[in-house]
Amino acid sequence: MLLIFKTPAGDHVYRYNKAVVVCFKGKRKVLSTSPANGGYREDLTAVFNHDINPGAGMACKLKASTYSEHLAITAEELGLDRECTAGMGTAASMNNLAIKTQSHRNFAVTAIVTAGIDINGSRAGDPACYEEKENNPKKPVAETINIILEINANIPPHALVRALVTSTEAKSAALQELMAGSNYSTGLATGSGTDGVILISNADSSVNLTDTGHHSKLGELIGVVVKSAVKEALYKETKLSPGSQHSMLKRFKRYGLDEEVVWREYLKLREDENIVKLCKPAFIHNIHLLDKRDVLVTFCSLYIHLLDQVGWQLLSEDEARKAAAVILASIKKELDVEEKKKQLLSGGKNFFEEMMACFARVIAQAAAAM
């Protein structure tokens, strides 16, 4: 058992048996999404986050027929009272935990986070994966971004609920700033369908605060620590970072543009035009040489934002086409690609398919010319 942190409220944070456990040193108010002793509670003595991933490529398995019973069994295995413990499960490693604390005058906020959204990242409102039916709740079991947030101040229940809203917004802001895409739509991820959160207030504190929204200093600290901890945990778990996102292919992933799409456009070019014939490995190699070029990442970011704004109905398709034509021409000029066939943005097909095909064609020309 390893004591890895002591919170400003005096609670001990341990890491052992693939879990991180917060043991309370006094009376705490807890609001959580946990199926085991979740909701609002004032009788808990500990909370935990547990890695239930059996290994790379292996499916997470429950220790019982329900998730709540699985968590109760896990609590017992961790040496905790199952009746007085709330917990979360995840496929993320506890070795990739991020802990951030911010203090101001007589109170402090601590975020303890594990995260990873490569598989399950999604946007609120994305198409559902299943429909829960009575006595047959086939929901995914392992949370993806798990947040334990402790406030070293005495917070009433309604303010804890507002803190849940603020921390969720901070998590979504972290994903937005990383341009993390949904795996279920063309949108930017706002989280995943299996995120969990546990909020803790120090009921023994003489500091009584009631505002956890954006305008309060407490709300500011909640946003700062959660956003920072989510970013660090994502980097530790999956290497997601501003640097890793400086990539044309990663930016376009949510719109379905990848090496195969560009290769298919290149094959069309070889048929239609007098263009150098490359084997597929050599062509893909050239795409990856282009992938992180500053000019391409910059212009593809602008191009994708046009697509997003059409999807959000902030721009018309015709407005986006005109701007896209300028971007495509700029890419050709910067990469010194000869205009062998005029790009047509005519609206003759599905808008998004048309835009993807045009961009892929320009990249195919650039890769073939290298």
By DSSP, the count of extended strands is 13
Strand neighbour order, sheet with most strands:
5-4-13-11-9-8
Q: What is the multimeric organization of the chains shown? A: single chain
* Tally of helical runs: 9
Q: Roughly how many Å apart are the termini?
A: 56 Å
Written as H for each helix and E for each strand, in order along the chain, the element string is: EEEEEEHEEEEEHEEHHHHHHH
Alpha-beta classification: alpha+beta
- The poorly predicted ranges are none
What gross morphology would you assign?
elongated
- Sketch the major β-sheet: 6 strands, mixed
List the domain count as a whole number.
2
Beta-strand percent range = 15-25%
Any idea what the CATH architecture of the largest domain is? 4-Layer Sandwich
| Helical fraction | 25-40%
Commentary on this structure:
- It is a single chain.
- The protein has 370 residues and is an alpha+beta fold.
- The protein has two domains: 2-238, L-amino peptidase D-ALA esterase/amidase, CATH 3.60.70; 248-368.
- The chain is 38% helix and 18% strand.
- The chain is built from nine helices and 13 strands.
- The protein has helices at residues 67-77, 157-177, 217-238, 248-252, 259-272, 280-291, 294-311, 317-335, 351-368; strands at 2-6, 12-16, 19-23, 28-32, 39-41, 46-51, 85-90, 98-104, 107-114, 121-122, 146-151, 191-192, 196-202.
- A six-stranded mixed sheet has the order 5-4-13-11-9-8, covered by helices on one side. A five-stranded mixed sheet has the order 1-2-3-6-7, covered by helices on one side. A two-stranded antiparallel sheet has the order 10-12.
- Helix 1 links the parallel strand 6 and strand 7.
- Helix 2 (157-177) packs across helix 3, helix 7 (294-311) packs antiparallel against helix 8 and helix 8 runs parallel beside helix 9 (351-368).
- The longest helix has 22 residues, at 217-238.
- The protein starts with a strand and ends with a helix.
